[in-house]
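Notes to self after the call with IL:
- keep both proteins in one doc
- input above output, always
- annotate only the second one for now

Protein 1:
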Amino acid sequence: MVPSEWERWYDCRNSDVEGMLKNLSRGEVKPDAPASLKAFTTRCREFSLPRKPNGKPLLSWEIDGKGIKATSSSHSISITSKTFTGGLPHGMSPKKAREVDRFTALAQMLLSNEPQIKSAIDIGAGRAHLSAALTREPLLLDVCAIEGSSSQVTGAEKLVSNRLKYKKEEEEKRGMLTLKTEVLNENGIRKILQEGRAEKEEGRLVCALHACGDLTVDTLRAFVSSGSAERQDVLIAIGCCYNLTSSTNFPFHPSNISPTFAHNHLVLATQSPILWASSTSSWEAAKLSMRKLVYRARLQVELDASQGPSPSENRVGRLADSCFLSYEIFRSKALKKMHLNENDVARLEPQGDWEGFEKKFMFFWSLRCLLGPVLESYIVLERYTGLALLLQERLAVDENASRELRLELLNLFDQEESGSARNLAIVVH
C-alpha cells in the first residue's frame, strides 16, 4: 500500500513526471516531498552497497584455520584495461568487451602474485569471450571453458573459427582453449575442479562471469568442497539473474540468518534504477519496460472481469517491442497469442485519465524498484559471509592446509559507464 501523503504529494506535483522518474533513478525526490518519502529514499541508499569502483575492496577478510579477521585492505586495485586495443573481436558487443577487459585486468593483477598459475577454468563460459581473452597475452593461460548448454558451446566454436578468419589470431602467441559441455550444478562443478587438475599442478584461476541464478552459488560451494582453496586456486565470481535463484539457496550457510525470499523479491533484486537514465537509449528502454507492465496489468484486469484464464493457465509471454506502441495494439496481439477472441474479453475503459494513471503507475513502481539494490546488497553479502564461514571450516579441519586466504568483495565495473548492472565480484586469493 502507498502512504496517502505520498499519493497526495504526487497528485500535486505530477506536471513533470519524467523529471521525477529521473530523480528516482538516482534515489532522489524533490525537496518538497513528504519527510517520510525522503526518509524512504535515504534509507534505500544507506542500506545499499556503494557501487562505484574506487580502487579499494568494499570488504577484505583474512581467513585461516583459526578464524576470520576483517582487515582494511592495504593494497589498491589498480586495473589498467587494454585487452582490446586492436579492436573488438568478432561477435563481441562493446558492453561484453568492457566486462571482459576489466575481468582479465583483475585476473592479471591477482596472478602477478601467483606465478605458478598457468591455467584457468571458466564456469558458465557462454560464448567463451572471457575464456579466449584469458588465453591471450599477457596472461597466456590454458583455459577450459565449461558450459551447460551444447548450443552455447557450438556458438563459441563458431566464434573462435570466425575470429581466425577476420583476424590472423593464429599468428599470436596464445594459451590453449578447450570448450566442453558439462552438467553445471554443485556436484558437476566439484567434479570438474577435482578431475581436471593436471598432476603436480599448483593453483588455477576459477572464473564465473555473470553466472546465472544458482550457478554462482554452486560455483562458490564447489570451490570450497573440491579443495580448491587449499590448492592455491584463485576465484573471481560475479553473480547474475537473481530471479533464477532457488529459494532453497538461502541461507548460503546454516549459521546465516536469512529471510524467506519469494520469487518477487528475487525479481526485484535485479532492478538497477541507476542505469535507467545513464543514456538516452537506456532511458527509452526503461520507459518501455514500465509501459509493458502497465499494459499487462490492464489486460489482466480485463481477463479477470471476463473470467478469462489466469497468468499461470495461459501466458502471454514475450512480445515484440512494436506491440507496445499503444494499448490497442498490445491487447490485440496478446489475446491472439493466448488464443482468445477479442470480443470474448470485456473491454474496460479506465475511469478518468488513462495517460495520467500510466504515469502514476510508473512513478510508484519506480519507488518500489529503489529496493532492488537493497535486496541485491543483502544477497551478495549473505553469499560473501557464508563463503567465509565455509572456507574457514574447510581450513580448520584440513591438517595440511597452511594457506591463509584473503576474501574480498569489490566493484569491478562502473555500472553507469559500462551498462553492467551486476558489478560485484567475490574474490578469493
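Protein 2 (the one to annotate):
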Amino acid sequence: MSVIGDRGTKKLEKLMAQEAKAEKKNIAHALKDVKKAEKAVKKSVKAVEKAQKGREKTVKKEQSAEKALIKAKHKHADALEGEVNAETTVNLRREKEGERDRGVQQAQQDLDSFQSTMEANARDRVSRLAEVLAHFGQEDEHVPSSAELASRL
C-alpha cells in the first residue's frame, strides 16, 4: 500500500466523521426545536383555557347586568364589550394554538427527515469506505461503522 492511499483513506475517514458529527448536531437542534414548539403549544393551551374562563366570567357579568338594566345600563354595556374582547382573545389564541401545533408537526416531520437522511448517509459512508478499502486491497479488514468513525474525532 502506498503512502498516498493511506492519506486518502484517512482524509475520507475524517470527512465522513465530520459529516456524521454535523448530522448529529442537526438532529440535536431539531429535537430542541420540537421540544420548544411543544412547550409553546402547552403554554398556548393554558392561555386558551385562561381566556375561556375569562370569557365565561364576562358572560356571567353580562347576565347580572341584564337583570339590573334599568339601574346599570353602563355596566351592561361594559360587560358586552368585555365579552366581545374575551371572544376575540379566545379566537386569537386558538389561531396561535393551531399555528403552534402545525409548527410542532412540521418540526416532527423535519426531525424524521433528518433522521432518515442521517441513516442513509451513514450507510452510504460505510459503503464508500468499503469500496475505498477494497480498492486498496483491504477487503478482509474490519469496516468501521459511522459511529466508530465519529468516535475517532
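Annotation: Helices lie at 3-67, 73-135, 146-151. The chain is about 90% helix and 0% strand.
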